[in-house]
Amino acid sequence: MKYWEDFEVGTQLEFGKKTVTEEEIIRYAEKFDPQPFHIDKEAAAEHYYRGIIASGWHTAAMCMRMMVDGYLLDAASNGSPGVEELRWKQPVRPGETLHVKAEVLDRSLPKSRPELGFVKFSHKVFNQDGDLKMTMVSSGMFSRRPSDIKTLEANQ
What we know:
Elements: E1 12-19, H1 22-32, H2 36-39, H3 41-46, H4 56-70, E2 82-88, E3 97-108, E4 116-126, E5 132-143, H5 146-154
């Protein structure tokens, strides 16, 4: 289990391997982002992108799944206060295999909640050729290591 103390500034993580299919791109977009270049092969072929592409929100959702599998399930995660920056750099196309590179940018302790700490991450999503597809800067809330909390309480 990883706690707030385990996420040191500069720590780098690499995880994920998600191959994107045309069917899932269309299925996601039909439900959440039904623009023609996401759901209609013929319209997409005539569009600026020249083919079906994943919704940026779908790309963000796939990144989230890779984050959960890559480190959040093995951490004392308490959710997130939000995303500071989200950029879609290149469209994600059917057949691409995505992975994520993350770096711990900063971490802090709130005065009001000594049992929690904040960790700011940079996440970058790449395809199998190393093409940058998406960037995101966000923070997560993580429990402090229980032994550290007990020490902190004893010293108060």
